[in-house]
Amino acid sequence: MSSPPPPRRGRWTGPAAIGLVLAGVFATGAGLGQMGAGMSWGDLFNRPGKPPPREFPVLEPSQPIRIAIPSLDVRAPVIAVGLAADGSIAAPPLERHTEVGWFERGPTPGQFGPAIIVGHADTRTGPSVFHALRTLRPGAVVEVTRRDRTVAIFEVGSVERFAKAGLPPDRVYGDFSRPVLRLITCGGSFVPGEGYADNVIVFASLVGTRGP
Amino acid sequence: MTRRLAATAVPLLLVTAGMALAAPAPAWAAEVFLEVNPSTVEAGQTVNLRASCDDNTRTARVESTAFVAPVTVEPRYGLLTATVTIPADRNAGDYSVRLTCTGGQAATTTLHVLIATRPTRGPATGFGGTATGDSARLLVGGGLAAVAAGLVLAMMARRRRADT
Which residues of chain B from 23 to 62 reach within 8 Å of chain A, CB to CB? Predict the structure, then answer.
């Protein structure tokens, strides 16, 4: 039999434990409250993708003019964008951060192949049009209105994050088996002077059309 | 003007009458059509042609300036099919594709060709205004560690109480 622990130490363990837990919960909550475009609770859970439909419509080419993502309350005009100086897809200029850019070298939304639409996650001071994109769920609806007044209705298959330096080209640009849509914005950690380290990409497939 | 119209109309009428006499449409006459799948493609990739003539046991010709040379579609599963590669040097644009059946019937469709542009560098779509700062990361990490430490301490305290 060893000697019993000193009673003084035992008296303090209980209150210390309670204090630590309380302070920890408070700090965690405060930290989560500050989390921005980089991460979210959703990132901690694996979200299974939704397979594309077996049957799908196909539309003739027509430039997109508006996008709507009802579940995120996003409604924005679409402008055409080309390539930036570094060879990446150009994003709309900062003063038009509430608009999104359709990559004009790719197919239009509703044609066979991947139509690509990019939008800012944030400005230097606050959120932009695609800020909440990473919270989009498989099965959510994205509607793109085109110049011919038809509305291409896409369904989200998955929302994924890739290092900005290496997007998977075949997955992003290579699917010409059906009309698909890729929504791209920024995510991951922010490196001052360089920008965000990752891109958040929404993969969606055409499931219906409306109009004109 | 009217005379020229009449001049073209007469042979047309004769041709139509001749066709009607020569080939009475059989009850099973298939629709004459041409499909390109996918109808939008990057230059350098292949597309499938699916066509139908009145007689799908005989080959037919499909022509387009998007192809290197005219393509022969051959009978398969009751239709006429072929696979064709669009040369990588074709310009982006809309190309007319024309089917000519052995019997003379024709159908056209459009193939949309794009130039493969696949930037592997992602677009710069943020300026950091809502970025997660180091303080947030520290708060979450430190907070979770404090909670864990607190729980361990609490367990130790209960054990000791149970021992005494």
Answer: 38-42, 45
Asked if A172's CB is within 8 angstroms of B124's CB, the reply is no
DSSP letter, residue B72: E
Gap from B32 CA to chain A (nearest CA, Å): 21
Q: How far apart are CA A65 and CA A148, in angstroms?
A: 9
A11 burial type by CB count under 10 A (0-12 exposed, 13-18 middle, 19+ buried): exposed
- Per the listing, tokens 């929504």 go with A183
- Give the C-alpha separation, B71 to B58, whole Å: 14
Mutate to test the interface with A, among B91, B113, B120, B125 (most CBs of A within 10 A): B125
Q: Is the pLDDT of residue B163 over 90?
A: no
DSSP three-state, residue A65: strand
Tell me the per-residue pLDDT of B148-162, one tens digit each, with 9 for 90 and over: 888 888 888 887 777
Q: Is A23 on the interface with B (CB under 8 A)?
A: yes
Nearest of B161, B12, B121, B24 to residue A10 by alpha carbon: B161
ipTM value for the complex: 0.75
Q: Is B159 on the interface with A (CB under 8 A)?
A: no
How far apart, in whole angstroms, are the C-alpha atoms of residue A156 and residue A33? 27
Q: How far apart are CA B69 and CA B41, in angstroms?
A: 18
- pTM of the predicted protein model: 0.75
Does A31 contact B145 at a Cβ distance shorter than 8 Å?
Answer: no
A162 contacts B128? CB cut-off 8 A: no
Beta bridge partners of A186: A199
**Position A204, amino acid:** A
Segments of chain A with pLDDT less than 50: 1, 37-38, 46
Q: Which residues contact A12 (CB under 8 A, 6 or more apart)?
A: none
Token readout for A37 is: 């475009």
